[in-house]
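Cont'd.
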Amino acid sequence: MAVSIRTDGEAAGLASSSNRSATGASWDQPILLRLVSIALFAGIWEVAGRIPVSFAFPTFSDTVVAFFGLLADGSLATAYLSTLQPLVLGVVLSAFLGVSLGTICGLWRTGEWLVIPVFIVLQAAPVAAFIPMVTFVYGIGMTAKTLAVMILALPVIVLNTYKAVRNVNESLLVMCRSFLGTNWQTVAKIILPDASPVIFAGLRLGVAAGFVGVVLAELLITPTGIGDLITFHRSRADYAEMYATIASIIALSTLTLVFLQWVEVRVFRPESRGA
Amino acid sequence: MASMTRRTILATAFAAALAWSLPLSAANAGDMRIAFGDLPGIESIQTLAAIERAKERGVNVELIVLNDEDLAAQAIVGGQADVGIGAPYTLIQKVGVPIRIFAQISTLRFFPVVNSEFYKEWKDLDGQEVAVQARGSGTEAVMLLMAKNHGIKLGNISYVPGSEVRRNALLQGTIKASIVDAANRRALEAEAPGKFIVLPVEDLGASDEALFATADYLKNNAADVDILVEELMKTAREITANPAVAVELRNKYKLLPDLGAEADSEITEYYKETAEAGSLALNGGGADAAKDDFAFFSLAGQIEGDPASLKVEDFWDVSAIDRAVAKLGKK
């Protein structure tokens, strides 16, 4: 957890230190500012919990205690084990399927006409309304939950990839042609690298949507994993545990996105580092 | 000029949104706002009829339908509704807001159903997977209680919310043993005669639905509460004496109009069974009901502490049913 935040901070630090080196020492320490921001948030939460805003709103400290309680008795680990299965499966399938579909549609007009309208509709639709339909067709098991994740994650990945591929810098394409690049070389060496920032942005949005999908599925289809912990603790009026679970899935989703950005910068697009 | 128009449009939209939302927040003044924790179905006829009769006697009732019992309880605590329907023992014990149950409507009736190809009786379920409503729900408690009484240990318990969902899963064969409510048990018997066996359950006596409100509300609105409790008792007694009354009440007050006339036979059947089982509370529950509930819900894990040491007055306010029984006589 700390590792990925720090490395991300370094990556951002590289960018900011060159621009803002004159503004003062504290600004060079984004990690410090982030900690202050988190502490401020926790402080406001604690105060709001102590007023209390609502009978069902626990304090920050109670929530932290509940979080470690859930960690200690293993219920959080068991819950994530079952939540991560449809989530990872759905997100990985959506990533491969979405990037391939988006690339094909960006390159091939007929594919664009056939496929893109469907995804535009899917993206505009209130997707949670599809979930009861999914359960009618695929029942209440893992398939239905994986599909729920994909319904949410796929459109944004496909559409981002498609738009990125379609809007590749024309002069780069001309250059490739003038160097007698083959079709394959055009795609692999010009189009995909040039489109990658937007594709990666789509993937990150897709992963975030996947988290939404899995929580929706677990709340609406059958309560397993995180959805089960949330509904169970709500029905028991253990609000601190409920909030701890909700906070944990938000934290996990944020960390995953930060990690993805780090991977993107370090592994796939090293040229963008510090740019 | 262009930015001027844009600004005007935005301002108009904002003003319209604001104007629209204001009357909504002001339009919640009813004398008694009753929060249903579930979509009303045929099992709600008695309650709905009692509410209609209370209206006739001058109580201005506003019905709020929520899709979750927990939400109903939260609406009571939060002050968005006055009277809730459910059995919020956990909430009463855990949350420091004085809520009291003031009348029992009906007792729990659930039916463990097994696929006859695989199981015939309770001891066949030893170590087998069963599907129940939710973790810590009444259905789970019934299954665990019965397993204990029959000296068996259930295998994996899976959670499938919705009796009708479990009914469909039973029919499709996805699950082989589950527990459903009366309406879905009858549907199973009608749709696949002989395919399922209903396992015997001893009388549970625990509350399925009860009325609850904050202690303050009960104190300040005793007259309205008394009328509602009296009408609830009267309808329960009438239906128990003659189940056909349920359909008459439905027609008289035009209850559940979207179910259509074909629901009448189902309603008759349902209330015949309910009346025979004595599931409608004729005297509004009270201390006896509370004792049964303590035993059942502590087994379900919904209330903490030794059932014998729990105090009725911490969960119940029996004054309204006492007054109603004094007026109507005890049955």
